[in-house]
C-alpha cells in the first residue's frame, strides 16, 4: 500500500536506472567525440589549404555558397563537392561556418561566422590561416603520438624524440617551416598589438625600447608608429633571424643570445618568449632583462596566463591546449604559467613588482617593474 506521496520502490528503482543510463549515454557520447577530435584540426587544416574562407568572403560579400560553388572557386579543375560538404558541416558544428538551408530543399549553403572570418586574408596579407597550418606540419604531427613519453621522461620533449633535434634548430634548417612560422606569428601578432596599443599606455616616456625575440620587427614597427617620441628601437633576436629582417626606420636589428646578455634600454618588450622556456631558463632571461634596465625601468612581457582553477570555458581550453603544445613541441618542462607564478619568477630575478593588464582574451600583458 502506498501512503501519501511516497513513490513505490519499483518506480524509484526505474527512475534511478533511467537517470544512470542517461548519464552513461552522455559519457559515452563525450568520449566518442573526444576520440574523434582530430577530425576538427585536420578539417580546419584542409579548409585553409583549399582557401575556402577567402572564396566565401569575396571582398566582404560573405554570400552563402554551396559546396559545389565553393569548389568551383578553389579547384576550377573539379573535385568532390560531397566530401567538401562533409568537412563544412562538421566545422559548422564548431562555429566556423553558418549553415543556410533553402526552403523545400536539402541544399546546404555556407557563410563565414566571426570565427571563420579570422581565416580571411586582410589588406595586409595577414590572417590566422598560417597559424593553423604551422601547427599541423609533418614534423610537428610526428611528435603528437609520443606525448605520453613527456610524462614518463621529461628530459627530452616529444618533438626531439620524433625528429632528432629541437624545434628551434629544426626550423632554422627548414626555410619553408621558418617562413610559415614568420607568417603565423605576424597573423597573430598584428591584431594583438593593435589591442595592446589601444588599451595600454605604458610606452609613454620611453625613449629607447628593446624588443627581445622581435623576429622581423613587426611589433616595434607598430609601437614606433603609435609612439614616435621613442628615439630608438632595438630588434633583438638570434643573428640568423635578424639577418633576414627588413629595414625599418628608427629600428636597429641586433643579433645575440638572450641567455648571455640583452641590449640596454629604458624598457624591454617581449611577446610569448617566457612560455617556451623552463623556470630556470626564464629566471636567466629575466635576470638579464633586469640588468639591462635602469632603476624605474620596466619589462613589458606579453604571455598567456593560466587560470588558477580549471573550467570548461573556451579561454581555459585554448590556454591549456596551448600549454600541452608547448610541452610537446618546444620543451617538456617549458610551460605557461599563472600570474602568481610569473610574479614569483620576476621577484626571484630582481624585479620589485608585477602589474598585469588584461587586454586580450588569450594573452596578458605583464609589466615587471625594476
TrEMBL record:
O-methyltransferase C-terminal domain span: 149-352
BP terms from Gene Ontology: methylation
Domain O-methyltransferase dimerisation: 33-122
Gene Ontology molecular function terms on file: O-methyltransferase activity; protein dimerization activity; S-adenosylmethionine-dependent methyltransferase activity
Ranges of Polar residues composition bias in the record: 12-21
Entry keyword annotation includes Phosphoprotein: no
Domain of life: Eukaryota
Keywords per UniProt: Methyltransferase, S-adenosyl-L-methionine, Transferase
Region (Disordered): 1-21
SUPFAM superfamilies, sorted: S-adenosyl-L-methionine-dependent methyltransferases (SSF53335), Winged helix' DNA-binding domain (SSF46785)
Pfam families named among the record's database cross-references: Dimerisation, Methyltransf_2
S-adenosyl-L-methionine is among the record's keywords: yes
Name by which UniProt lists this protein: O-methyltransferase domain-containing protein
Record organism: Cucumis sativus
Amino acid at each position: 500500500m502506498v501512503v501519501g506521496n511516497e513513490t513505490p520502490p519499483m518506480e524509484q528503482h526505474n527512475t534511478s536506472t533511467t537517470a544512470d543510463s542517461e548519464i552513461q549515454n552522455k559519457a559515452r557520447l563525450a568520449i566518442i567525440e573526444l576520440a574523434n577530435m582530430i577530425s576538427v584540426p585536420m578539417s580546419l587544416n584542409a579548409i585553409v589549404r583549399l582557401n575556402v574562407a577567402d572564396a566565401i568572403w569575396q571582398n566582404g560579400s560573405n554570400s552563402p555558397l554551396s559546396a559545389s560553388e565553393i569548389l568551383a572557386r578553389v579547384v576550377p579543375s573539379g573535385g568532390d563537392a560531397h566530401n567538401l560538404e562533409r568537412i563544412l558541416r562538421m566545422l559548422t558544428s564548431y562555429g566556423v561556418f553558418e549553415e543556410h538551408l533553402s526552403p523545400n530543399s536539402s541544399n546546404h549553403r555556407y557563410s563565414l561566422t566571426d570565427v571563420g572570418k579570422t581565416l580571411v586574408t586582410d589588406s595586409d596579407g595577414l590572417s590566422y590561416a598560417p597559424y593553423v597550418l604551422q601547427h599541423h606540419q609533418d614534423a610537428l604531427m610526428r611528435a603528437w603520438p609520443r606525448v605520453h613519453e613527456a610524462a614518463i621522461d621529461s628530459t627530452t620533449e616529444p618533438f626531439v624524440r620524433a625528429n632528432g633535434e629541437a624545434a628551434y634548430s629544426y626550423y632554422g634548417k627548414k626555410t619553408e617551416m621558418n617562413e610559415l612560422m614568420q607568417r603565423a606569428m605576424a597573423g597573430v601578432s598584428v591584431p594583438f598589438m593593435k589591442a595592446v596599443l589601444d588599451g595600454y599606455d605604458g610606452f609613454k616616456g620611453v625613449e629607447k625600447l628593446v624588443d627581445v625575440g622581435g623576429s622581423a620587427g613587426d611589433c616595434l614597427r607598430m609601437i614606433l608608429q603609435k609612439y614616435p617620441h621613442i628615439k630608438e628601437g632595438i630588434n633583438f633576436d638570434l643573428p640568423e633571424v635578424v639577418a633576414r629582417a627588413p629595414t625599418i626606420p628608427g629600428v636597429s636589428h641586433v643579433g645575440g643570445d638572450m641567455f648571455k646578455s640583452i641590449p640596454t634600454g629604458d624598457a624591454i618588450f617581449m611577446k610569448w618568449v617566457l612560455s617556451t622556456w623552463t623556470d630556470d631558463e626564464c629566471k636567466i632571461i629575466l635576470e638579464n632583462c633586469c640588468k639591462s634596465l635602469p632603476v624605474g625601468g620596466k619589462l613589458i612581457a606579453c604571455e598567456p596566463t593560466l587560470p588558477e582553477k580549471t573550467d570548461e570555458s573556451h579561454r581555459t581550453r585554448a590556454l591549456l591546449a596551448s600549454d600541452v603544445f608547448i610541452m610537446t613541441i618546444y620543451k617538456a618542462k617549458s610551460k605557461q604559467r599563472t600570474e602568481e607564478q610569473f610574479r614569483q619568477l620576476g621577484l626571484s630575478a630582481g624585479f620589485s613588482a608585477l602589474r598585469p593588464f588584461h587586454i586580450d582574451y588569450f594573452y596578458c600583458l605583464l609589466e615587471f617593474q625594476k
